[in-house]
User: What shape does this take?
Amino acid sequence: MIKVENLKHSFGSFEAVRGISFEVSDGEILSLIGPNGAGKTTVLNVLSGILLPDSGAVEISGTNIFENPRKAKGITAYIPEQPYLWGKLTGMEFLNFTRRIYDSGISDEELEKLMSEFNIFDWRNRLIETYSHGIKQKFIFLTIPIINPKVILLDEPLVGLDPIAVNLVCRMLARFVKSGAAILMSTHVLSFAERIADRVSVIDKGKIVFEGWIKEILETRKSSLEEIFLKEIPR
Assistant: This one.
């Protein structure tokens, strides 16, 4: 479970996040949508421990991430928009390094199968610095089953991925939701949010301006996420 209370963060005089509160239950996906600069990435960077907030509280499965960051990070997987990896490692070296850090029980055979499914098996022994953005993103996604997290944070996860990989990612996330993981993601691909998310929060200028259940929006309100987005975000 993810619990955020009155989260605030500023960059100098710019208030990027202004008192945001929300929860993501176990076995649920919450999608953050909003225009560029709305504060989505800042929220995810605070939850992943990259940034410290000005104020507010964040709990990951009952653990305060600022009081016990090691425990919180140990059960969290974070897929950033930019896949920053060590260029002088091979993809396989990076995955093995991740396995050692998390003392992962994933087998060589399972990892090889995943690399084959994502069509990156032939890249495993090449230096990461030779990879395209999409290849790096695929290797990053393979850290999720290695970590086997209780919480998954995703920032624009589809950037650079081909349609086959997108389908594999959806299936992977569905498996983790079924096993009880809490997932928070930001995306500009509203059709993707409609496809896999349970709830949506629209963020604008550092504040949540709309929250709703995807099923209710699509069935009861007879609206798409795009219509909600355009209605709630001033132009």
In short: The first helix runs from residue 40 to 47. The chain has a mean pLDDT of 91. The chain has one domain: 2-232.
